[in-house]
Specification:
By secondary structure, the chain is of the alpha/beta class. It contains 4 helices and 5 strands. The mean pLDDT is 89.
């Protein structure tokens, strides 16, 4: 089984990592931790390095438990949702886990555009974490 986690270093993304860890242990799965940089190649090197370190830390959580894990820092110039779906299709992902920011009562009816895109276009189950 292949599990993808959308990771942006937010609190809810860290919660998504926890769920991915549980699912990976339960289903003997490999985990793909993915960050997409919408700005493409124009991102400053300092920011790029900071994100790579966060991904390395996230990967270590899985490696410490002997769970196969791979990180992906996508810099293709696509919107984050498009990037994650494209990679999910390329790597035959079986489950996608993404975080959802808490919002007002009205905002709870709508997800972020990234999460909404993933839910609508994924060909596998999507687990959302709030």
């Amino acid at each position: 089984m292949e599990i993808m986690v959308g990771f942006n270093d937010s609190r809810v993304a860290k919660d998504a990592l926890d769920i991915a860890l549980q699912h990976a242990q339960a289903f003997n799965a490999r985990v793909h931790i993915v960050t997409s940089l919408v700005s493409g190649i124009d991102i400053p090197k300092k920011e790029f390095d900071r994100i790579e370190k966060k991904l390395e830390y996230a990967e270590s959580l899985f490696k410490d438990k002997n769970i196969p894990c791979k990180t992906h820092l996508l810099v293709r110039g696509l919107q984050a949702g498009e990037d994650l779906i494209k990679l999910a299709n390329e790597t035959d992902i079986d489950e996608i886990i993404v975080g959802v920011k808490r919002r007002s009562k009205v905002g709870k009816f709508l997800f972020s555009s990234t999460t909404q895109y993933i839910i609508l276009h994924a060909t596998c189950p999507v687990v959302t974490i709030k």
